[in-house]
Sequence to fold (490 residues):
Amino acid sequence: MRELLALHRLRLGDFKEAVQQGLLALEALTSSGDLLRQSKVHCTLALAFTDTGLKEQALQHVLAAIEAARDCGNTTAEFWALSRSSTVHGSMGDLARGVELGRQALALSRTLDDPEVNFVALNNLSDSCLEAARVQRVQGLNPSPTLHWGLSLVREAVAVAHAQGHTFFETIALTNLVSILIELDEHDEAREQAGRSKALANVNGFHNLEVNNDAQLAEVVRAEGHLDDATAMMEAQLADPSLDNDPPLLIRLHESLFEMHKESGRFERALAHHEKLHALTLNMTTQTAEIQSQMLINTMGIEQANHEAERSQLEAEMLRIRAEELEQQANTDPLTRLPNRRALDRELPNLMDRAQDLAQPLCAAMIDMDHFKRVNDVHGHGIGDQVLAEMATLLRGVTRESDLAVRVGGEEFLLVLADTSPAQAEKVCERLIASVRGFAWGDLAEGLACTASVGLAARQTSESVAQWLARADAALYAAKNGGRDRVVAA
Fold:
């Protein structure tokens, strides 16, 4: 019950009560050992702390959410924890980490048959791209690649929401789409999509979103250089009494009006908006500080701890490192120390995207130790484990930093070679099996000799991952049937 109250209070903007109920819920769930529900409550608390600017506390809870989700093996919970973690890191100004976590969440969402999860992953990552691009622009960097990536993500989010008939999600995604189009100076489409979003908001009674769409339309007009028209639109919007319930939008409007009046030489009106902007900002800061104070007092009382600022920072850093270690462990095969299948699912899409963006070839080599069962039967499983560990070392010897070597399972490995033609890949694989053939296996056990077979396939543009790897697997079987200790290309 308390976890539901925490979530409900969060949605109502009652952050103080959300934190109090969430911490009490955590106490009970920790005692019961319910990791799944613990992860959900940690996510709720992370959002409450983020929205009130308590970033260190937010970071602690998202890290705990990820750990609890992974410990209970729930992929959906892990997705939400990664998604919330992306939000927290973005709010802390660590946009690169926020984007990376968003990418991980999106990759995880692709494995789930859940349209809502898929929409959230796409829409949130597109928003992270928008924020990252704005920072890149300020830093004098080219934001175009990031913006175009975000554009493709948010278009997909709109399509997902539309296909599900979820008008609220569609309206939200359209709002993000308009923001990215404005950054790309695609004014005509930005106006069209803002009108589409406003129409949906109007029909379905999403008044806050409709008001935001009006502000976006004014931003489009401003971006086109029509300052007087944009000014008139924003001044008219300020007359809407409902804006009193939306301080962030009020601040945005006064800030834009201050800048436009100043640019147009209307300094008295610019000053008036600047004064209102200052008053609103001060009021929000004061209110936030009061909420933060109450939340921290509640937190200290419930947790019975008096955290000093330096210790909090240290604990947050330790938790971050621990989370990275857990992530590394979750993606590493303990015997060979190679990435495992989970890491393959995470990293392979990145390699494929890079190869496609740069028009580079990508080859997959399926590798299998020959007669490995005989090694275990004759020499024992301990020697078999040593053979696999040595095989991993030989595999690293032909693997570059840009490649990916994975233990798929048992005695089978996968080598993905980036920016490598089929002919080059075949040479790499020939070197590999020669090193296996020539290795001093007898040092591990008297009479031991090992070879390996390889099936090689270059990825074709039109085929899926499953089709590509299936061709490599078929080539591996051909190598086995052809006498083993050889490379066969699909």
